[in-house]
UniProtKB/TrEMBL annotation:
InterPro entries per UniProt: DNA/RNA_pol_sf, Retrovirus_Pol_polyprotein, Rev_trsase/Diguanyl_cyclase, RT_dom
Ranges for domain Reverse transcriptase: 17-93
Organism for this UniProt entry: Trichinella spiralis (Trichina worm)
Protein name per UniProt: Reverse transcriptase domain-containing protein
Native organism taxonomy: Eukaryota, Metazoa, Ecdysozoa, Nematoda, Enoplea
Cited Pfam families: RVT_1
Length: 130
């Protein structure tokens, strides 16, 4: 979220290389989550079946056509509000549960097994291999 000059000045930090003035709301600011949630709430307001929940947007519909229409509406509103979405972070939720994107699952399935040079306990624990 872009900030006005007064807010940018209040968020300015001093480093060994000089002052660094931000252009966007920093999430280390105590009010940032509430401000962000307010922007998200306003962005999706009035779209039936759309529920913002923290940094997630839940979209429900009775059929795929309705879901596609609601998703398209959401996808058009976010850029107009100056927000970007990452489609690679999305999940599908249906009657059987929450499912990651098929490409993510495939990437994990295609990952190589334990590498010969990674036989030490420290190396294996880095990748959570037994």
């Amino acid at each position: 979220l872009t900030v006005d000059d007064a807010t940018a000045e209040a968020q300015t930090i001093i480093t060994h290389r000089g002052a660094f003035r931000v252009k966007r709301l920093q999430f280390g600011i105590s009010a940032a989550p509430g401000v962000f949630q307010n922007v998200i709430d306003k962005t999706v307001a009035g779209i039936q079946g759309v529920l913002p929940y923290f940094n997630d947007i839940l979209i429900a519909a009775s059929d795929e056509k309705e879901l596609a229409n609601r998703l398209e509406t959401v996808l058009h509103r976010f850029p107009k509000a100056g927000l970007r979405l990452k489609s690679d972070k999305s999940f599908e939720v249906d009657a059987t549960g929450i499912h990651p994107a098929k490409a993510k699952v495939q990437a994990i399935q295609d990952a190589p097994g334990l590498l010969p040079e990674c036989t030490s306990k420290a190396c294996r624990s880095t990748f959570d291999w037994p």
